[in-house]
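Q: My labmate handed me this sequence with no annotations at all. I'd like to see what the chain might look like in three dimensions before we decide whether it's worth expressing. Could you predict it?
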Amino acid sequence: MRKNQKAEVRKPEILENYYQVLIEEGFEGASIGKIAKRMRIHPSLIIHYFQTKENMTLELVKALIDRYEAPEYLQFDHIEDPRERFRALMDTLFSLEWSRTVDPGVHFGFYYLSFRNRAVRKRFEEMIKRLRDHLVGELERFRATGIVKVDDVRGAADMIVTLIEGLEFHAHFLSEDRPFQEFAETAKQLAVTLLTGRSE
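A: Here is what I predict for the chain of 200 residues:
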């Protein structure tokens, strides 16, 4: 196997193991040594591919962005009826499955890092803005068919992102052991009312 091909195989594998170590140990406990131990490889191999932990962290952010943009999540071109497509978008955005696309501890760990690391902030910001911009495109489509009634589509997309980001905050601090989906459904209805002027 050529060097480039080997890197294409090993780098995603290392990043997945880094992700798993972050879930288990948190950012403060994760290290190249622990990732290497989990993979049963020498730490120098990880250093060979990434040079530093910071480089590996930036690569992981990029990999997680790809997860959010996977076709199975927010692509609804197979749904022809606009109202069904709108419902499918709302159901997905406010689902447990979407919220846990990335482990919440890792997700908010990157949020924490973004205050201290400009490169992480840039990548994290890119992820959030790409989601917002995707929603702007979808909402423009729904406005053209008369489903969405708001004039400020970008502002509405910002509010939806804010709501869905807040679901994990609520689940962690305010849920009082109630199911995630209970509050998510309330948040979804709020978003639908904001966008359409009526509840579903």
